[in-house]
Write a structure and sequence with these properties.
Ribosomal Protein L4, Chain: A, 6 strands, 20% strand, alpha/beta, six-stranded mixed β-sheet, elongated, ribosomal protein, Large ribosomal subunit protein uL4c
Length: 215
Amino acid sequence: MAVQKIIEYNSLDSNGQISSDKYNFTLNILEDSGNYLIHRDILRHQLSQKQGTVSTKTRSEVRGGGKKPWQQKGTGRARAGSNRSPLWRGGGVIFGPKPRTINLKLNKKERNLALQTLLYNKRNNISVIGELETLINEPKTKVFCDICNNYNINLDQKILLVVSTKTTPLKLATKNLKNVELISASHLNTLSLLKAKQILLTPLAVNNIKEIYCD
């Protein structure tokens, strides 16, 4: 059974001080545990990233092997009909991988429920930073690092930065930071949330998450 939980955050200004603006999430989570839904959604996300293009050749697809290597009887050796048998070097592969597409179906309501449950579980790791998209107006990593220092953000931990729109200066400023993942609110997923130790949201991203996942 799903129950509603409300979490509230104060926005931080450009100096890292708490402002008067407050933002809240009304999340629907499972009363018992939604971990099995989170697991299924992460599995679905990982399977969708697989290319599935690996392929091996069977004995009928390997070039050559049309002639019988030696006569059936009289040689003292085992019978052989082709030198492309899987038992021979250079032969085909038995039960080898073939191109395939694996899809794990998960309903939209289940995906949203898994995402909201994980947001609630990570509620203590979430910070709302006001106007982050406009604070970084030049593509310099140092500018982003200075902002992180103002907010006491540890760049040695995995950071998920969720914005409404990925601007070019913001993408270039975070590109060289290996622990920072920049993602738009419309592409938010449980795998990125699960890996992150710190989650940074902008006010516009908060509104987008409410519209897309919490309605």
